[in-house]
Amino acid sequence: MIDLVTDAFAGRFGRVEPRRAAAQFVTGLLTDLEIKTCWQLAEQAGHGRPDAMQRLLYRAKWDADAVRDDVRQVVADRLGDPDGVLVVDETGDLKKGTHTVGVQRQYTGTAGRIENAQVGVFLAYASRHGHTLIDRRVYLPKSWTGDRQRCQQAGVPDDITFATRSELADHMITAAVDALVPARWVAADEAYGNNTGLRARLRALRLGYVLAVSRDHLVPIGAGKTRCRADQLAADLPATGWTRRSAGDGSKGPRFYDWAWLADVGADGDPDDDGRHSLLIRRNNSTGELAFYRCWTPGPVTLAQLVRVAGIRWTVEESFQAGKGQVGLDQHQVRRWTSWHRFTTLALAALAILALCTATSRTPEHHGQDDMIELTVNEIRRLINVLLIRPTHSIAYSLRWSTWRRRHQARAKRAHYARRLNLELQP
């Protein structure tokens, strides 16, 4: 499966050296290295120095978006299903300083508060066969797009202007549709569900959606302009308005919630809109906590279908967990625009390998075995390390790398000390 994915984008490299380095980079991301930076990946690949890996991210000529397209196509070919779901979400990486592309003090769900962070918006694909991330965009706040000198220093192309996170989601979904990724649905959390423009765009693409919205979200009622808060609509429901259904299987069994479905509410007023609008409400049967979803489909739909899509949204969280825990998605120690997109694209390729291996391993004969669970992404990566990736290098090789690292760090230390002293001596 490693060769299947890396061969899919091999033709994007004009020279053999970066082509080989890219395949080794992806393989290195699948290893059990604790830290997955250019230094560690170069050592794992058997290089004497990190130059080839660093050149791959910084100076080599190749198009990260084209490689992304190839990875997305492999995923669509192997996991594709007409009832597939595109899931949008974002994740933040905490950063120090101000020079890393996109970094500023902003809210990130990773930390649960405002921190100095870089935020990436991602698109995942989920079907009955499996799920993985298939696209990415780095979010540039106005503090960046309004400072062209800062953008130039980080290598941001001149034609990149400010785009909201919902607009970045729109771009990725549209690209997936244009690439004929088989999908019928879109799911996202309330940061995207509250956006009127994104909902309109999805209707134009004829994609059904189950988008979370906030409890104070104003839902249009009837043919007029009357709007009512989502939580008020829930409070007015009778006890008979709720039904218990599973939103899918979790690690501890089916995830049962109480659901209420208000059909024919929530129309945004598009003159050409001929679809079915509704509001879906989920209630935790233990805590009573409520969640709300604006829904639209181009044709008739059942409650079971909407509940399934609402439950699938959590697969993107699993993909983030696997991406960061298994292939180092958050370990990019790069500052520039191009380098971020290149590292992240190769991490998506590594994650796709795990997703495809997991899907392939779930054959009908294994599905019914009660004495063991199906192979997970974590277990697949362990097996890849044991069965496919080259064993640990010799002691002499490891010592040579230790010597190189300490000499490089000594040079960096001297440079930092000299810079600090020069600053102190300036009048």
Automatic annotation (TrEMBL):
InterPro entries: IS701-like, IS701-like_DDE_dom, RNaseH-like_sf. It comes from the Bacteria. Residues 9-219 form the Transposase IS701-like DDE domain. This is Transposase. It comes from Winogradskya consettensis.
